[in-house]
Amino acid sequence: MAKSENLNLQLRPGFEPRLDAHDRGKKRTKHGARTLATGLDKINDFSQNKIIGRHRSASTWIPEYAVHVRTLGGSQLQISSSMVGLMFSIGSVAGLLALGLLADSLGRKPTIWLYYLGALLFSLCYFLLVHERGAFLTMAATNGFFSTGQFAWMTIYLPELFPTRVRGTAMSLVFDSSRSIAGLGPLLAGWLISFFGGIGTAAAGMSLIYVVGLLVTPFAGPETKGKPLPM
Fold first, then answer.
1. In this structure, are residues 87 and 63 in contact, taking their beta carbons and an 8 Å threshold?
2. Structure confidence by residue, pLDDT tens digits, 1-35
3. How far apart are alpha carbons 229 and 176 in whole angstroms?
4. Each residue's pLDDT tens digit, 87-145
């Protein structure tokens, strides 16, 4: 009879079994580790949202920069902004699709780090070194692959960091808390062009924000490849 009463008690909503000192210590340790991981991930997401600000401003300059270089070079560079934009979009779609495959093979964090590195290198190359039509189109597609494709991590990695009961709230908090700061990027774009003296230099300067992502990613959050979702 007493055993039946204990079973009914355990089935009641909100029932939590009494833990001994050892179990309470383990629970506090797990909670502290999860809090630390969440805090580091918020820092990583802050850098990611700063990257969003860079992306929304500098990526809009990719077609415009091609026209700017064509104007400076006269008729030698036969290229249109629409063609550059098309190549950038094709590369973006490819990057979004590829990130899921790479995340499953290399791991979540190494893939994110790789995309940050590619976005940094190819953004600098596009805005500082490219002056030929073929190179413009190739670099635009490659830039789109890394700088836009990286945003697929939000639907892959973030849900794997939080338990079911808070997953939606945590994802919204982590992702949206720093977007107000990232929104300053497009607002400052015009001022940066005037300050640096041109689109190419301004966009290359904004691309350096990827360095923050490269430094923070190895320490922000655990690797979740092959692990079950936290309950």
1. no
2. 444 444 444 444 444 455 455 454 444 445 444 54
3. 22
4. 999 999 999 999 999 999 999 999 999 999 999 999 999 988 888 888 889 999 999 99
pTM: 0.73
Give the domains, in start order, of the chain with CATH numbers.
39-219 (1.20.1250.20)
Q: Which tens digits make up the pLDDT trace of 186-209? A: 777 778 788 888 888 888 888 888
**Which residue type is seen at 50?**
K
d(CA 133, CA 81): 11
Long-range Cβ pairs for the range 81-89 (8 Å, 24+): 83/137, 84/136, 84/137, 84/140, 85/140, 87/137, 87/138, 87/140, 87/141, 87/144, 88/59, 88/62, 88/63, 88/140, 88/141, 88/143, 88/144, 88/148, 89/144
* Residue 229, SS3 per DSSP: coil
